[in-house]
C-alpha cells in the first residue's frame, strides 16, 4: 500500500505508475477522481517544470571544438569498417577501436564529453519505442545495435531538439554539426562537420564510410537528409 500526503494511492493508480510519476518520468499535473464519492483529489502538483526530454536535451549540449578534436583523434586509429552485429557490454560498450561504422565515430567522440549514446539511445527507445523506425522488425530496444543505426540516431537527435534546417549553403553547416545522408539503395550515413574547410570554403566531414575514420570533402557529395546541432551556445 502506498501513501502520498496521507492519501492511499493504490486506490486510484497502480503502485508502479505512481512510482513512475514520482520519479519524474512523467511531467504533468495529475487530476484524479475518486469514483465512490466523486471527490476530486489533487494528488500531485507540477513535479518538474521542464520536461524530462528537455532535461536530456540539456545533457547533449556539446562543446563543438572538443567534439571535433575527439573525432579527429580517431583518424589513423580506426582504419577499418565492420557493420556486423556484435554483442556489446552495456553501458559504454564498443567494438574494437581499430574498426567500426559511421555511428561509432560519433559515439566515441561524445563519450569524451561524458555522453554515452549507447545508453542515451537505449533509454529513449525504451520510453518512446513507437517513435523510432520499425524497419528491423524489432519488438523492443536492443542496446547492442540501436545506437549504431543511422535512422535511430536521426530520431534521437530530433527527439532531443537538436534538429536544424537542411540547406545547400555551406555557411549553414557549423563546426560540430552532425549531418546524415542518403547514399542510395537504402543506405544511410552520418558524420561530423569539421572546423577545417576546402580551398573553396566547404567544411570537411569527419566520418567512416568504409575505410576507417577520415576527414574528407563529402558534405554535398550525397543527399543530406538530416542536420543536427547540439552545441553549447557561444
Task: From the structure above, extract its key features.
single chain; 234 residues; alpha+beta; 5-stranded antiparallel beta sheet; two-stranded antiparallel ribbon; 24% helix; disordered N terminus
Can you give a write-up of this model?
This protein is 24% helix and 18% strand. With 234 residues, the protein is of the alpha+beta class. The chain has a 5-stranded antiparallel sheet. A two-stranded antiparallel sheet has the order 1-2. Strands 3-4 form a two-stranded antiparallel ribbon. Helix 3 crosses helix 4 (102-111). The relative contact order is 0.14. Residues 1-36 and 40-58 have low confidence and may be disordered.
The fraction of residues in strands falls at 15-25%
> How many beta-strand elements?
9
What share of residues is helical?
10-25%
From N to C, what is the helix and strand string? Answer: EEHEEHHHHHEEEEE
Oligomer: single chain
Count of separate DSSP helical elements: 6
Strands of the widest sheet, in order across it, are 8-7-6-5-9
Task: Describe the largest sheet.
Answer: 5 strands, antiparallel
Tell me, briefly, the overall form. Answer: globular
Low-pLDDT parts are: 1-36, 40-58
